[in-house]
Amino acid sequence: MAASRIISHPHRPFSPPPSQPHAHSSITLNFTLHPTKRCRFACVLRASLKENDLNDKADLFALPRPLTSTQLSDSVSDGPRLQVAYQGVPGAYSESAAQKAYPNCEAVPCPQFENAFQKVERWLVDRAVLPIENSLGGSIHRNYDLLLRHRLHIVGEVKYAVHHCLMANHGVKLEDLKRVLSHPQALAQCEHTLTKWGLVREAVDDTAGAAQYIAMHGVKDAGAVASSAAAKIYGLNILAQDIQDDCDNVTRFLMLAREPIIPGTDRPFKTSIVFSLEEGPGILFKALAVFALRQINLSKIESRPLRNMPLRMADDNSNGSPKYFDYLFYVDFEASMADPRAQNALRHLNEFATFLRVLGSYPMDTGTV
């Protein structure tokens, strides 16, 4: 039976009043539904979202309607500055990425990634800018999981070149150091250099937090790997610059908002989706072929085990032994949802996907890092 299906978050709480229709609050396509096929996955997905939904539902329904993309434009000339959440403390690379994404914004620090998601959902800030992958360290898996758990939309991306510095308190020399503190990915990106210096690596929550700790406690035998901005903020001396093992060290950040933007075709766009498939020979090949058939380039694919049901039985005769994982597939493709090719590709994918959601359709960052 043909029906209209909204590719959006299944528990999105905001409904525009009849007097003010919000035509672009989600991306709507006509799909053929298969209720039986999707029943099992829907139950699992509801379970994974239950904790957030039940705790926040009453508060969220009492909140005002989301602002439009026009009201929350990138450059705000009138009224207060845009408030943008990031993970870390002042001086973090994420703060610099937020300021690059939204010049003249008020960057709001958050201790954890999930706090940034929650601040946007609860109207405490306007946007969030969070890392999703690094050219050396790979994907930030935590944020892939949080994209599915929360109600936010990807409205843009920004690529930021990371330049690591080794810093310490004034008067401390490189030969005085026995250990170095930083985020695990930063330590991994400087592995060869730190090994050459014979420094013991100690992981902390973020790079700027390491610099803050060294400064606040007046540590003499340890340094921090962080940005030059962090060294300036916390009054540390930079002992060495650009200590990463590869000079091409770029982190890609996602810009998140309560409302999606209106996709266009006037500039290069990227679309991010997440879907699940039934197990079967060649089923993933078939899913990816819907894009190749329409000359749509895939720029990223990431698989994550389905939480709350990571293992599935092969059949009723398996004697209780798990046979294989259930996966969610996150895909970025280079096309706008305003492009008929993208719409047709998702209609085709929906014919055999057990779950499909558009996380965002947004302009590509084609500028220099």
Kindly list the characteristics that best describe this protein.
369 residues, disordered N terminus, 10 helices, 19 strands, alpha+beta
Furnish the topology, listing elements before pairings.
Elements: E1 2-7, E2 27-32, H1 35-61, E3 83-87, H2 93-101, E4 106-110, H3 113-121, E5 127-134, E6 138-139, H4 141-149, E7 153-161, E8 165-168, E9 179-182, H5 184-189, H6 191-197, E10 200-203, H7 207-216, E11 222-226, H8 228-233, E12 237-241, E13 250-257, E14 269-277, H9 283-292, E15 298-305, E16 311-312, E17 324-325, E18 327-333, H10 340-350, E19 353-363
Parallel strand pairs: 3-4, 3-5, 9-10, 9-11
Antiparallel strand pairs: 1-2, 5-6, 5-13, 7-13, 8-11, 8-12, 14-18, 14-19, 15-18, 16-17
Could you give a quick summary of the protein structure above?
The protein is 28% helix and 30% strand. With 369 residues, it is an alpha+beta fold. Strands 3, 4, 5, 6, 7 and 13 form a 6-stranded mixed beta sheet that branches. Strands 10-9-11-8-12 form a 5-stranded mixed beta sheet. Strands 15-18-14-19 form a 4-stranded antiparallel beta sheet.
Uncertain segments are 1-78
Count of alpha/pi helices: 10
- Report the radius of gyration as a whole number of Å: 23 Å
Shape: elongated
**Fraction of residues in helices?**
25-40%
Which structural class best describes the helix and strand composition? Answer: alpha+beta
Listing every helix as H and every strand as E from the N terminus to the C terminus, the arrangement reads EEHEHEHEEHEEEHHEHEHEEEHEEEEHE
The largest sheet, given as strand count, sense and whether it forms a barrel, is:
6 strands, mixed
The tally of strands reads 19
Strand residue content: 25-35%
* CA-CA gap between termini: 48 Å
Q: Average pLDDT value?
A: 81
